[in-house]
Structure formats: C-alpha cells, structure tokens
Amino acid sequence: xxxxxxxxxxxxxxxxxxxxxxxxxxxxxxxxxxxxxxxxxxxxxxxxxxxxxxxxxxxxxxxxxxxxxxxxxxxxxxxxxxxxxxxxxxxxxxxxxxxxxxxxxxxxxxxxxxxxxxxxxxxxxxxxxxxxxxxxxxxxxxxxxxxxxxxxxxxxxxxxxxxxxxxxxxxxxxxxxxx
Amino acid sequence: xxxxxxxxxxxxxxxxxxxxxxxxxxxxxxxxxxxxxxxxxxxxxxxxxxxxxxxxxxxxxxxxxxxxxxxxxxxxxxxxxxxxxxxxxxxxxxxxxxxxxxxxxxxxxxxxxxxxxxxxxxxxxxxxxxxxxxxxxxxxxxxxxxxxxxxxxxxxxxxxxxxxxxxxxxxxxxxxxxxxxxxxxxxxxxxxxxxxxxxxxxxxxxxxxxxxxxxxxxxxxxxxxxxxxxxxxxxxxxxxxxxxxxxxxxxxxxxxxxxxxxxxxxxxxxxxxxxxxxxxxxxxxxxxxxxxxxxxxxxxxxxxxxx
Lengths: 179, 307
Hints:
Oligomer: heterodimer
Structural class of chain B: alpha+beta
Strand content of chain B: 15-25%
Shape of chain B: rod-shaped
Number of helices of chain B: 8
C-alpha cells in the first residue's frame, strides 16, 4: 500500500490502514526504543501513541506530510521516547509532589469519563469521538455517519454531550469529581 | 449556559482568538463557576479522547506483528504449486546430472584400413593332411606344423591407431598334446574347399606350387572400421559392404582384426583381451561370439603371432 493510499484511507476513517501501518513498521520502531534503554513493552506503547497522534492529525486534516510516513512516525517515536527518558531522569532525582499529585487526580477524572462513555450508545460515542478526538467538523461527521445535514449532527452532538454530562454528574458529585 | 458551552468548546479547542479570547479569559478570571465549568468540560474532552485512544490501542494490540513465515500463511494451492515446482527443479537437475550422453555412431572414431599391398603371398595354404580333418569329425592326434614361405604379417590396431592390417598367409597348426576327442568343427573355419585356388585344390601331398594365377589379388576394397565405445555393454558388431561397426565396452584395450583373404572370399576374426571372435557378413547388429573351437583357436593364434 502506498503512502498516499494510506493517508486517504485514514482520512476516511478506515482503521485497517492503521493496522497495516502498525504491522509494517513495528519492528523498526521497537528496535529504536530497545536500542535506547527501552523494553519491547515500552516500545509498543510509544509506537501506539505515535500512531494515534498520526491518526488524529490525518483525520483532522492538520497534517501536511513532506516525508515518508515511516520517517514521520520514527521521528514521533524518537521524540516521545526522549521525553519519557527525560521524565524518568527528572523524577528519579527530583520528586515534585505537586505535579505528581495533579497527574493522579487527572487520571482519576479521565477514568470516570471513560466509564460513562462506555455507557453511551454507539452513535453517541462515534459523534463525540469524531468531534473531540478526530477533530472532524460537522460536515465531515454528517458524511461519515450518513446524517441528512450538519444541523442534524449539531443536534445529535449536543444531545450526546448532555447525556454524557448527566451520567458523569449523576454518578459523581461535583466534590467527588474535583476532589 | 448553552451558549457558554459552545464558547467553552471553542476555547478548549483553541479556536477562539483575538478579542473573543481575551474577553473569555477575563470572564473566567472573574467567574469561578465559569472557571469550574471550563475545567469540567476539559476533563470530559480528555476523557473522550482517552476512551478513543484505548479503543485504538486495543485494536492495535490484536494485530499480529510476529515475523511472517509465508509458508505457514500460504494457502494449500500455493503450497502445492511451490512443492510441484521444487520437485520439478530437483528432478530436472538430477536428470541432467545423471544422464550420460551416449555417443552416436557418427561420433565414433573411424579407422580406415587400407588393404595392403604388394608383398602379399598367394592365398591360404593348408596342410593337405588336415583337409579331411576339417571337413568331418575326426580324432585329432599329434601336431603338425606347416610352414609357408612367407611369414605371417599381422599388425595390431586399436581404436587409437590407424595402421594397415595384412593377412596371414602361413598356416601353422600345432597341436601340442595328443588328445583323443571328437568335435564338430565350427562353421567359421574357412573351408578350403570353398576357396578357389589352384594350389589348394591339388591332391598332392607336396606343397602346392604357386602358379602365376595364384597371386592373391591385392585389388581389394578397404575395410572401414567404426568403433563405438559403450561402457558396460556387450561387444557387438555389424559388418557389410566393407564396413565394420564395433560396439561395446572394449575397456580401453586394443583389439586386433585378423583378415583371411582368399581369391573370392574374405574372412574376419577379432582378437580382444585374449579371446577370438568371428565376424560374419551381416547388416544386422550381432553379438561378438567368442570362438571356443580349440583347433581354430590355435590356428588363429598362429595366424596372429606367427609362432
């Protein structure tokens, strides 16, 4: 599969293109991390993160690729791994309580939202993820989900977001959520 | 509040800019509830992103990234085709390796034998005493020796040489030990009766005198000899029209062709690896049959060695 074909498929939401990329360059990316004091598990996480970033940028139309996909992914992996190594180095010698405390709280909030997302219907999940994760506009969401028009998408998105908010607020009190 | 929701979305997605951004940030600094709402919406957005990321990661975890051994993933038809092609290649290589090209008759070494010459003697002279013994069953006793004026001339030739072979004019039969036996003469023995030669036809006990007309004609067609060496094969031959074809495994040993000429007939014998073989005129390939007749063998030995 050529790079141009891969980009077109990802722009249309074809997740099989993502599978193809993952398998094709897996060994290359993993080798880079492993050779730089990483394990294969860590390498896999880094590579998956890089691929997801790539997916987001292509889906939202923000990416203007001037090199091969492999080169771009490799550079993302390198940067991610470098940050990870720096983060480990900093935290191994300097414990900053405030930051550590905040990241934990943030993770807890996210877990709550993820649980409530799982309780939504598939249409709502798709609309919300297309909008907030893939960065698609109303027209693109309407086309992908076969909605009549953008107004239908706006209404659907409003209702799904409201439903999610209700689940979150109904399950947790504000103090639980922010404390 | 709903309008704030859209503005919050725009703020969080960084699509607010210019004056609108400044105004909103000013409002947040003044309104804690707004600030709280923005933080809530930010958490929801991050949670939605995390949810989608986990979905994609779960999908990628299910992808098989192990090295592809194509054989294992190949279909049965593909495997069968590859196997057939491999067998075909191996079989062809084996055929080429083990096949030994047999030389065609045309590849053999032709040795032309020019029939000699002038110093020939006149025909075969037999001991008259032996003639009755040759033509019927006899008991052979004693040894007789008949010497002729001219010495036998037999030249050896093999597939590597090209020399003229002359015939033996002297017949010497030596019977070393008296022995009592009866035997049937091999028909290959040249029958002197068939030889039209005045000297031979005499009934006198004296040695026949060579007459003028007795000189053996030297005007003979040469024998073309073609030897085709075939390993591990029985000796065979074909002789007609002045051409002798020899086939078989001569084991790289020389052979001798003994040619007994009379006025009207020519007899050929082959000597190879201490065996004598008779050669008959025929256009069909025949086995070289060894001669077992001891009398004839001795005569041929005398022909060949002159002893």
